[in-house]
Task: inverse folding
């Protein structure tokens, strides 16, 4: 089909050519992820997380599909795919917010380790385990940390780490923690050597934990990990926009379906003009968010685009998609009427995920301030 591309060497190698239209391979990947989620989990199960119910472990099957190693080079056992491909998975995980370490391990932690390069300290030795899903990693910084913000560190002395890091996402499922030290170095710490304290989170489908280190042994991966950590946070923010776009489109779709069936005063509620106008505006904005998120994923992939332009596009997507996902979820709750306010209805799942995502990896306001600097706009 004209305008579409196959997943050839040009889309996964150094000669990647950015395409905003999804390829057939990406469509196939989307279908596979959607089928897996439909078979293994539903919204009722996700609601159970708020009552303490055990959530199914989807990661082994996701790893079996190659999702854990999408961003890992082939020489390390991964697929060598682009972030635009990984963004497809995040989009589907926005449409059904299951508990997985896709964002925290397969995107953020993987990007950090890849950015370190293959040096004598063996930082890439961790990548094969991440690629096949036998190892899960998490970056030990607060989940609210923006790519442009100072990073929380712990005290480091002679390879031993002490200190506390609040609000870390993905730590409860991690085997390895990537910990920034006060000396500027980045350390790999076995999760068993840290104290992981789960905290009550607005979004229980993405658990948050406080980490404490008490003279924990760490393996120094690099003497200066600032750039690698920033690369991981930037990649995370860029691809989180795809998850937020997935939330928005799911909310629009389910709300339209409901309003086409719900009758009031002898008429289908979706037929009222005021309701149709709200839905039309929301639909247009949701499609816009999908386009912006796709642009961020493609731009950060494109080797021909400099880091400045990639950062600028990621900031636009993070700011726009964060707010739009929350508004779409709020509209979904309201337009569902009384049933949308109940615990049994899944509308609250998307509102909670959207609101938690809104402050993850930087608030919209923080991204807008960064955007102003990147675009050299006057205050």
Result:
């Amino acid at each position: 089909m004209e305008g579409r591309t196959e997943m050839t060497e040009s889309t996964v190698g150094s000669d990647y050519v950015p395409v905003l239209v999804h390829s057939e391979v990406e469509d196939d990947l989307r279908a596979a992820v959607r089928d897996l989620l439909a078979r293994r989990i539903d919204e009722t199960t996700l609601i159970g997380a708020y009552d303490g119910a055990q959530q199914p472990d989807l990661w082994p099957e996701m790893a079996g599909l190659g999702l854990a190693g999408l961003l890992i080079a082939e020489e390390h056992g991964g697929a060598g795919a682009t972030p635009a491909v990984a963004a497809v998975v995040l989009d589907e995980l926005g449409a059904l917010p299951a508990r997985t370490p896709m964002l925290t391990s397969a995107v953020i932690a993987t990007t950090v380790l890849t950015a370190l390069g293959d040096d004598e300290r063996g930082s890439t030795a961790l990548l094969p385990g991440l690629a096949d899903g036998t190892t899960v990693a998490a970056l030990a910084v607060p989940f609210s940390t923006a790519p442009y913000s100072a990073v929380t560190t712990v005290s480091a002395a002679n390879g031993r780490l002490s200190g506390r890091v609040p609000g870390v996402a993905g730590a409860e499922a991690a085997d390895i923690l990537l910990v920034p030290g006060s000396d500027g170095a980045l350390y790999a710490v076995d999760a068993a050597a840290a104290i992981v304290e789960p905290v009550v989170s607005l979004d229980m489908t993405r658990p948050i934990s406080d980490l404490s280190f008490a003279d924990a042994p760490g393996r120094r991966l690099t003497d200066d990990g600032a750039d690698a950590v920033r690369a991981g946070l930037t990649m995370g923010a860029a691809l989180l926009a795809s998850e937020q776009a997935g939330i928005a489109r799911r909310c629009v779709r389910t709300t339209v379906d409901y309003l086409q069936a719900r009758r009031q005063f002898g008429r289908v509620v979706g037929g009222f003009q005021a309701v149709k106008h709200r839905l039309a505006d929301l639909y247009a904005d949701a499609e816009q968010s999908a386009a912006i998120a796709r642009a961020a994923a493609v731009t950060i992939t494109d080797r021909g685009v400099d880091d400045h332009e990639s950062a600028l596009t990621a900031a636009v997507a993070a700011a726009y998609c964060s707010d739009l996902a929350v508004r779409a979820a709020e509209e979904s709750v309201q337009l569902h009427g009384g049933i949308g306010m109940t615990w049994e209805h899944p509308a609250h799942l998307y509102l909670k995920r959207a609101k938690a995502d809104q402050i993850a990896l930087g608030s919209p306001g923080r991204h807008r301030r960064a955007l102003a600097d990147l675009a050299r706009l006057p205050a």
The beta strands are 137-139, 155-157, 160-169, 176-180, 186-190, 195-199, 208-217, 219-222, 263-264, 267-268. The chain has three domains: 9-102, 137-225, 227-374. The first strand starts at residue 137 and ends at 139.
